[in-house]
Design brief:
The structure is a single chain. The protein has 232 residues and is of the alpha+beta class. 29% of the residues lie in helices and 28% in strands. The chain contains six helices and eleven strands. The strands form three sheets. A five-stranded antiparallel sheet has the order 6-10-9-8-7, with helices on one face. Strand 7 and strand 8 form a beta hairpin.
C-alpha cells in the first residue's frame, strides 16, 4: 500500500493560498478563509490538492466530487470502489488511497498532553517505558488511524478500543463490544520527528508500505481543469 506525502513550502503567504484555492472545492475554500494562521490554511489546502493529484495520477479522475458522511468522513459518492483518508500535522500532509476502507494519521512528536497520557498508555507502560513521548504518539496515531478507518473519528470513546502490539510497529485494534470491524495498524517513524500509522481491515502483519512524496508546486499540474465547485 502506498502512502502519499507532501511537505508544506517553507515560505508561506496568503497570496499563494488564494491562488491555489481556485483548484479546490468551494466548501473547503470557505473553510480556509476562516483560518487565522497561514500554516493551518496551507495544511487544509494541501490535503485536498494532494488527494486530487493522486486521483488523477492513479485513476485519471479529473472532475471529482467529494462528500462527507454523517460522522464527517470524506468519500467519493460517484466512485464507491475508491477509498481514501487524509491527515496532516506540522509540516506534512499525507494521504492513502485504496480499494478497501483505510485510515491514516500523522502526528508531530511534541509535548504529551497530560490529560491524555493515562488514556493511551497503560500503567505498565508508564512504569517501564523510557521513551514515553515516542510510545504515546505511536499509540495515538494507531488509535486515530483505526477510528478513521471505521469512520467514527473521536466520536467513539477512546476507552472502548483495545490496541495490542502483535509485532514490531504492528498493532491489532478492535472495538471492545465488537460493534465495529477489527483492524491492523502499522506505525512508522516518519521524517524523524513524526509518527505515522495506517490502518486497514486486513489482518496482515507483514503489510508492505511505501511512501511516495510529492512536491507542493507540482500538485496543481493535473488539478487544472478539475471541478472547483465539488463539495467536500
Amino acid at each position: 500500500m502506498t502512502i502519499y506525502a507532501c511537505k508544506l513550502p517553507s515560505y508561506q503567504n496568503w497570496q499563494e493560498v488564494q491562488f491555489y484555492s481556485q483548484y479546490i472545492s468551494q466548501k473547503r475554500r470557505g473553510r480556509i478563509q476562516k483560518f487565522k494562521k497561514v500554516g493551518d490554511a496551507y495544511r487544509s489546502l494541501t490535503s485536498e490538492l494532494l488527494l486530487r493529484k493522486i486521483l488523477f495520477d492513479q485513476y485519471r479522475l479529473v472532475d471529482v466530487t467529494i462528500s462527507t458522511d454523517k460522522q464527517g468522513k470524506p468519500y467519493l459518492p460517484y466512485h464507491s470502489n475508491i477509498h481514501f483518508n487524509l491527515s496532516h500535522s506540522g509540516a506534512w500532509c499525507v494521504c492513502v488511497v485504496g480499494e478497501k476502507q483505510v485510515g491514516i494519521d500523522i502526528e508531530y512528536i511534541d509535548v504529551v498532553p497530560e490529560n491524555m497520557i493515562f488514556t493511551i498508555l497503560s500503567d505498565e507502560e508508564l512504569a517501564s517505558e523510557d521513551n514515553l513521548h515516542h510510545l504515546f504518539f505511536e499509540k495515538w496515531t494507531v488509535l486515530e488511524s483505526y477510528l478513521k478507518m471505521i469512520g467514527t473519528g473521536l466520536y467513539l470513546p477512546l476507552g472502548s478500543v483495545d490496541m495490542k502490539s502483535t509485532s514490531d510497529r504492528t498493532y491489532s485494534v478492535k472495538h471492545r463490544e465488537g460493534k465495529y470491524p477489527a483492524g491492523t495498524s502499522n506505525c512508522y517513524t516518519f521524517d524523524e520527528n513524526y509518527k505515522l500509522s495506517i490502518c486497514t481491515g486486513e489482518l496482515d502483519k507483514n503489510m508492505h508500505t511505501c511512501i511516495y512524496q510529492y512536491e507542493f508546486d507540482k500538485l496543481v499540474n493535473s488539478s487544472k481543469g478539475t471541478n472547483p465547485q465539488a463539495p467536500i
